[in-house]
Each structure stands twice: as C-alpha cells, then as structure tokens.
Amino acid sequence: MLLAIGLMLFAWPALGCETEDVLLRTAPQPFDVASPWRSPLPANPSVHPDSDAMVAHLTRDNGVYANLVEYGIPIYYANAQTPRHEVPCTVTTWGPCAFDGRLVPIPEGARPHHGSDGALVVIDESAGLVYEFWQAVRDDAGWKTSWAAVAPLGGSGWGEGGASSPRAGITGAGTASGASRLGGVIRLAEISAGDIPHALALQTDNACADVFWSPATKTDGGSHRPDCVPEGARLQLDPAIALDELELTPGERAVARALQKYGAYIVDKAQTPLSMSFELDHNDQGALGSVYETAGFRWDYDDMPGIPWGQLRVLAPA
Predict the structure, then answer these.
(1) Cα angle 161-164-169, degrees, rounded to a multiple of 5
(2) Domain boundaries of the chain, sorted by first residue
(3) Confidence bin at 14 (pLDDT 50/70/90)
(4) Which of 15, 127, 211, 309 is most buried as measured by Cβ atoms within 10 A of its Cβ?
C-alpha cells in the first residue's frame, strides 16, 4: 500500500509525448513522501555536540563544490518501448549483481558521466523503478557496469533498494552509504524553478571509517579524525539566516533554501572537503548548459561562494 500511495503522488512523463529536452527539465519527485529525502526538518532539531569542529573541517575551502559536469548525474527516462539489455556487473566480490536476471532499459544515446564513478541513472516509469549504474561502460560487446542497483520509485531511497519497500527483488545500493544514486540530486527543473523540494546529497573526504548513521546502511568512509562525519549524517544551514539579505545568485538561493528546510545527507566519500550532487545537462556535452548558467553557476565545481558555509551544522542522529 505504501508503494502504491507513493507512486500516485507524482506523474511520470511519457516518452512518446514529450521531447528529450522537456524530459531533462521535468522533475517529478521520486520516493515516498515519508522518505528521509522528502521530509522537511522539524523546528529546532538537535545539533550534534561536535558540529562546530565537523563543519570547520568540511568547509575549510570556504565553499561546497557543485558537481555539475564531470560528476554531474546523467538521468534518463525509459518506458515499455525502451531497448532492454543484459548488463553484467564486473565486480563479483560484493554479492549478487542487482541486474542479474533482468533486462535493463537503457535509452539510445545514454551515456555515463566522465568522472571516475561512471554514473548513470535510468528512470523506468512503466515499471516504477530506477536503475543505477556505477562505472558504466558501453563497448562493442554491449553494456557492462562495475556495480548496480535497482530501487523502487515509491520506496525510501535508502538501504537495499529502499528500506521501506515491500517489494521483493529490489536490490543493491547506488552509493556507498546505501542511498539511491538518484536521492538528493538537484534537478535541472528545480534550479530553473528556483525551488528544490527535498534534501540534498553531499560527499566528503572526511567520512568516518566504520561508523554510519541512519538512514545510511553502510559506509566506505576512511577517516579516523576526531572531527570526521559519518555517512548518513544530516546537515542543515542555520535557518535563522535571512537569505533575502544576502547577495546570492538564483542557484545559490535555491540551494540555501533547501539546506534550511530539508538539509543534506552525507552519502559518499570524495576527494574534496564537501561536494554536492546535481543533474548533468547531457544536452550540453562538456558545458554547464543554459539552466545552470542562467542560475549564476560559473563553471564545473563552482563553490557557490555566496552561501555562508561556515553556518552549516551537523544534526544529531535521530
């Protein structure tokens, strides 16, 4: 019942009725309304006692890097007519591949991003599923991927395909924390509208080793620093900040508002102090694209300097 209700709460675009450009800028909300991704923060949430030290190290570059191009998340749509492929996982030591026994829908022309993650996300609207690839490659033999996940669009967006999902056969996790690769990604349509109605996804080089907080189900963090931040930790921009009094670009303002209302989760490790996931505008290969440029983003890895990053806070685990 939870899955059915969740799927009824958003309408997925029909590929046969809209252009690819429109689809790229359409942002229906994935996951159940009770998902951690879609739940606003309560008033006066508890702040972790070590928050100041954690934030000081996370923001030591005085910015948060926007993954817009090289590590932007390419998101494609599929329906019943989309070509299906057998896609083996090349990593065999982590357990069963989520794509085993499935024909995976991949639209013609789909491409992973150019970063080392080789990320690719396909939303299968006809099945109510999201297919997630890590280090996806297409060669003369067809598609393959190092690792994979399949998650329900009406699930929680966390755990083995969504911890709240009642459906069997939903497997894998798109990120090292157990979060869906689609979870928290800032969509093109959201930047265009100036409204991001969900929590955001963050990566850091200071993710704790061996420790994670719910809703994360695991971690690949390697930091043993006393100010490390567990994967699954939720950060918030101090809601007392009057954003209208700051000189922010439209994109920075949308991000800051989301950080105040919904916060952001640490979902993966990175090579930078703190980075944030955005949808790749794959209509503009190698460039930001007009949506991001209009919103004031200057280049890939823009550090969004107008946001007062030092006023982030790490919330205590629920």
Answers:
(1) 40
(2) 2-12+30-72+183-314
(3) very low
(4) 309
Cβ-contact 187, 197 below 8 angstroms: no
On the question of a cis peptide bond just before residue 215, with omega within 30 degrees of 0, the verdict is yes
Q: Give the DSSP letter string of 119-155.
A: -EEEEETTTTEEEEEEEEEEETTEEEEEEEEEEETTS
Grouping H, G, I as helix, E, B as strand and the rest as coil, residue 89 is strand
For residue 94, the model assigns a pLDDT of 86
In the chain, % of residues over pLDDT 90:
79
Q: Are 203 and 186 spatial neighbours (Cβ–Cβ below 8 Å)? A: no
Angle at 263 (CA atoms; ends 259, 269), nearest 5 degrees = 105
Evaluate if pTM is beyond 0.70.
yes
Strand-by-strand arrangement of the 312-314 sheet: 65-67, 275-277, 200-204, 264-269, 234-237, 312-314
